[in-house]
Amino acid sequence: METIEFKAFVVEENAGVFTGAIRKRTVNDLPDNDLLVRVHYSSLNYKDALSANGNKGVTKKYPHTPGIDAVGTVVNDSSGKFKENEAVIVTSYDLGMNTAGGFGQYIRVPSEWAVRLPESMTTKESMIFGTAGLTAGVSVLRLTETVRPEDGKIAVSGSTGGVGALSIAILAKLGYSVSAISGKEQERGFLFKLGADEVIARQEYEEENRHPLLKGEFAGAVDTVGGSILAAIIKSTKPMGVVTCCGNVASPKLDLTVYPFILRGVSLIGIDSQNYPMEYREMVWNKLALEWKPDNLTELCREISLGELPETIEKMLAGKLRGRTVVNLDA
After folding, report:
1. Selection from 92, 93, 84, 94 nearest residue 38 by Cα
2. What is the C-alpha to C-alpha distance for residues 187 and 84, in angstroms, rounded to an integer?
3. Angle at which helices 162-173 and 123-144 pack, to 10 degrees?
4. CA angle 52-90-322, nearest 5°?
5. Fold for the domain defined by 5-117+296-328
6. Which of 8, 9, 95, 47 minimizes the C-alpha distance to 275?
7. What single-letter DSSP state applies at residue 118?
């Protein structure tokens, strides 16, 4: 195969300072894996922003191309699993962390990381979902195994972020009554548009978190932030309710008693979409393509080019983004 040159957003380290810029690379610079994909879209996630900012807990070696999500067409697959020009989605695993990621026009990854793009989903739609959508989908899957719409309200924390916003939209699509917990008063209209039935101010909710148990309000919850918000949600969950947990941006610590678990039978389910089994990934992606796809999916995102990444990453780290940000690799 002739050497292919392409554009990538590359983060470089110089005397402890990390900067990102568009660089020319070749496929020879990519890892020696069996699946080569021409990337058309990626998306910006909080983990990407951390990688671009030099977080060694996410990315150990630089220069590096972040991007934990990618969708594109197969150039070559030496494993024989995928055909040339077949559309595939690659999310999570080590993509964009220590393996060159979706902020480059080409990626080379193990074929086991890829999922065929469902027929009823466009490439752009797949990246509106991305890892955030997969995480939301897995959370909803586990929640709906036990909790039905008629059982009561579902709380969603971090509701203006990617996982939170998509969780609200999916749950609303499935007929659940959703209570969005947010610290952004100016985004109330956005949350109602997603399908939330009420918006709870995060600050007021945290102030109530003083007792071992709180009034049972929710049949279940999707928590994306951890810390005191997750503790308050668990304390506010009704008997036999289910809470899923997938994030720790507020705090990795959980300060509460065992009372919600032994007096109300509340279940806390951890969500790890990074290494989620492939058979379940495929099931969730197919549900997202069909019965779980929100009617207003395209309204949940903004589209940017590679060149707009530095500014957008800074906004994400400052908590100034909402919904999803899709990166067009052809723009």
Report:
1. 84
2. 43
3. 70
4. 50
5. Quinone Oxidoreductase; Chain A, domain 1 (3.90.180)
6. 95
7. P
Task: Give the pLDDT of residue 262.
Answer: 97
CATH number of 133-270: 3.40.50.720
* Structure tokens given for 219: 């049949």
Type of residue at 78: S
Compute the distance between CA of residue 204 and CA of residue 209 in angstroms, rounded to an integer.
9
Tokens of 190: 């956005």
For 15, how many CA atoms within 13 A lie in the half-sphere containing its CB? Answer: 0
Residues spanned by CATH 3.90.180.10 within the chain? 5-117+296-328
Give the per-residue pLDDT at 136: 97
Does residue 236 surpass a pLDDT of 70? Answer: yes
Backbone phi and psi for residue 123, each to the nearest 5 degrees, phi listed first: -60, -40
In the chain, ranges of CATH 3.40.50.720 domains = 133-270
Which tokens is 64 given? Answer: 């590096």
Model confidence band, residue 2 (pLDDT cutoffs 50, 70, 90) = low
What does the block give as tokens for 300?
């949940």
- Provide the b/e sequence for 135-169 (b: ≥16 CB within 10 Å): bbbbbbbbbbeebeeebbbbbbbbbbbbbbbbbbb
Q: Which residues pair with 243 in a beta bridge?
A: 221, 268
